[in-house]
Amino acid sequence: MRRGIVTVWSAVLATGFVAFGSLGQASAQDRPEVWEKLVVPGLTYRQEIDRTVPRVTHAFRMNLGAPGVKLVPHLAQGKVYENDETKGRGVLSQALRETGAIAGVNAGFFGPSGDPLGAHILNKEIISVPWPDRTVFAWGPKGGRVAQMRWSGRIVAGSVRIPLDGINQSCVANEAILNSAWAGQALSGGPGDIVHVVMDATGPLLLNQNVKAKVKMVVTNQKDVTISDGQFVLTAHGAKGNQAKALRPGQDITIRVDQSGVDLAQTPHVMGCGNRLIEKGQIGIRYASERFNDAFGAARHPRTAVGVTATGEIWLVVVDGRQPMSAGATLAEMATVMQRLNCVEALCLDGGGSSTAGVGQVVVNRPSDGRERAVTNFLLVMASGLNPPGAERFEIQAPEQIAAGTTAKVVLRDEEGAAVPDSEVFWSAMGAGWIDQSGLLTLLTPGDVRIAAWVRGVRVETVISVPGEATTPPAGLN
User: Fold this and answer.
1) Average pLDDT in the chain
2) In Å, how far from its chain's centre is CA 321?
3) Cβ atoms within 10 Å of 280's Cβ, excluding its own
4) How does pLDDT run across 261-279, given as a tens digit for each residue?
5) Distance between CA 268 and CA 141 in Å, rounded?
6) Which of 333, 454, 451 is nearest to 389 (CA)?
7) Given its phi and psi angles, is residue 39 left (phi above 0), alpha (psi -120 to 50 degrees) or beta?
8) Per mean pLDDT, which range of 4-8, 206-210, 383-387 is the poorest?
9) Residues 243-260: what's their mean pLDDT?
10) How far is CA 322 from the centre of its chain?
C-alpha cells in the first residue's frame, strides 16, 4: 500500500533530454537491455541490464570540451580529518546536494581514519600522494589518461634538509609528514617525541615548484595539532623529529614536492590508486604487481571505474554487485565492460559497498550495503548555465496490489495527471525492490521500497510496502 509522497526541490535543472530507447527486449537473453538519457549537453547517462550474468551497469559519458561541463575531484567534507563522527567522509547524495553537481561517482580508496589512500590532486595542488606501483587517472579540459605517478618531497631550511614520507596523513615512527590546511589536523600515530613545526604559508602546496613558508612555532609533547587556513604543519618523529626540533620561529622554509608520470600542464587533476584495466586499447590487468590479491581481482564485486576513449570522452562506470539482479564483475569482466564502451585507457577506483552513482538528486545504482556508504572522495560532474527548477510538482504512481517476486510499472505524473515521458526521468529504488530506467519495478522481498525520481530539477520520492514478513538483507563486504 502507498505510504506517502514527498517532493524535495533541487538546485539544478537538466535540459535537452534525448528520447528513451531500449536496444533489446527483456526476453532477449543474448544481448543486454540499454537505456541512454541525456543529462545535459555533454553528459549522457546509460544503464545496461545483462540478465545472463546477471549484471546492472550505470555509466556516464562526458565530453570535457562541452561548454560548462567539467569533472572535479571532491573531498567529502572539505578536510581529510574531521573531529566528529564523519571522520572526513560523506555520502554521494550529500556531495551532489551541497555542490550542485549534476552527476558523480565514488572515487578512491580510504583508510579507517578517512585518509585518502592514493592520489588526490586538484589543479596541481596535492591533497594526497599516489601509492607506489599503482595507476592513477589524470585529466584536464581536453581529456584524460591513465598513468603511473611517482612523487618525492623535502623541506629545506638553510643546511637542514628533511625528506618527506607523506602528505596530509598521520605520522608514525621515523617519518616526516607535511600537512596543509586540507588535512585539518596534523596527526601522529606513532610513539612519543613527536615534533610539530607550524608554518605560515605563502601559497598552496603545488607540485613541481618551490613553495615558501616561515616557521611560526615548534610544538613538542603534543600528539595532534589543528591546522588553520594559510598554514602548513611538519610533523616528524625520530631522527627527522630531531632535525625538525632544531628549526626556530621566523626561519624561512622552502618546500618542494615533485612528481613524474603526469603532464600537469595538460592534466592538472589526478585521482586514484589502481587497478589498471585497459592500456593502449588492450586489456592490461596486473593486480598482483599493483599489490591487490586474488579476492580483489578474480572474484565478482561491485566496481567503479573511469576510462577515456580515443576521441577524449570520459566514462564514469559503476557495476552493481552482491545482489540478485547483479552479481558484480571481476577485474577482467570490468575491463571488458570498459573496452565495450570504447575506452582505450581505464582503471578501477574503490568498489564493493563504496560503489555509488548519482544523477541530480538521486542515487541511480543500488549500493551493496543496502544504503550509501560514507567515503572520502568523489568524481563530480559540474555543469554551468543550468536553469533553476520550476514550480512543477510530480507524483510517483505505483500499483496498489504488489507482491514479492513480481514486477510493476511505475509512472511519474505531473500536476495535471499526465504521464511524464521516461526519457526525462532518472529512476532509483532502494530496499526491497529495484527499478530500471523504463520505470519497471521488480519486487525482490517483502518490506519497504523507497522509489525516487529526478526530473526537470525536481526530486520526487515515495515509499511502498510489499506485503509479507520483511527480511533483512545481508551486509555487503568491503
Assistant:
1) 90
2) 17
3) 8
4) 999 999 999 998 889 999 9
5) 9
6) 454
7) alpha
8) 4-8
9) 97
10) 19
Look up the CATH number of domain 151-260: 2.60.120
How far is CA 377 from its chain centroid?
5
Q: In this structure, which amino acid lies at residue 107?
A: A
Question: Under the phi-then-psi rule, with left for phi > 0, alpha for psi from -120 to 50, and beta for the rest, what region is 68?
Answer: left
How is residue 330 written as a grid cell?
A: 571481476
- If one counts every other C-beta atom within 10 angstroms of the C-beta of residue 113, the result is 15
CA distances from 27 to 51, 73, 201, 321, 405 (A): 9, 40, 63, 22, 17
- Grid cell at residue 127: 591533497
Provide mean pLDDT across the span 445-467.
Answer: 95
What's the rounded Cα separation, in Å, for the pair 476 and 354? 10
Residue 234 pLDDT class (50, 70, 90 cuts): very high
Q: Which of 70, 50, 26, 476 has its CA nearest to residue 269? A: 70
Name the residue among 378, 347, 357 with its Cα closest to residue 144.
347
Q: Where are the domains of the chain?
A: 64-147+263-383, 151-260
Lowest mean pLDDT among 13-17, 193-197, 332-336: 13-17
| Number of Cβ within a 10 Å radius of residue 78 | 13
Q: Of the candidates 287, 328, 283, 444, which has an alpha carbon nearest to the alpha carbon of residue 50?
A: 328
Secondary structure (3-state) at 19 = coil
Question: For the segment 197-207, what is each residue's pLDDT rounded down to a tens digit?
Answer: 999 999 999 99
Positive or negative, the Cα torsion across 139, 234, 176, 255?
A: positive
Place 414 in a pLDDT band, splitting at 50, 70 and 90.
very high
